[in-house]
Task: structure prediction
Amino acid sequence: MYQNGGRIFSEDGKNCLLNSPEALEAAQFLIALDLQHKVIPSISEIQDTSTQDLFLSQKLGMFFSGRYYVSDLQKMAGNTLKWGVAPAIHKEGRERVNTTPSPYGWVISSGTKNPEKVWELYEYLIIGEGEKMLAKAGYNIPILKSLAYSGLFLANPNHPKGVNKIFLDDVPYTLPSPVSLYIESSRFSTLVSDEMTKIKTGAISVDRGMEYLTKSVNDIINENSLKRNKN
Result:
């Protein structure tokens, strides 16, 4: 959707834009890959499994994931499956952009009784040995640029050769997950999942489904926006 010039929310997060021409075209393309071209697992095919399991059983050629899954693949695939990593697919002439789901970070509660101690812990985790341990493990890309581009991460013999550089090269084209402060991410995800299921099963057309989804999300956004204004 982002590569097609579409966006999920407006900049201020007060409007869902899933019924825009760009978003509709992207949704139609995605559904066509599933229903017409059969290159995406159907709902029935992933009902009792996952895309990752289908990949490991060699029933699926590729799937999208993040750096965190490389470590799991190393453990699960072992020498039984020859696999690799490639940059996210993008169409020539279109904006090269990725979105990363479920970003996470460290936070300190305003009610903590020992803020100084917590801060010391975070210093250790972020700019101390903690982040170096994560870089060695290879679960994610180090948040420190100096560490990410160091031999500890790029040339780590315990990581698949060249994989870390592929992920680093895609960082400039990657955006955090689109969110709105006026709707919970879990609620938004549920609405999207429910509507996409209806579209994939042919119960509703792409245009109608996206229009209904946009209205449902905007109704919630407007309701929560009014509550905030009153408070």
Residues 1 and 26 are 5 Å apart (CA to CA).
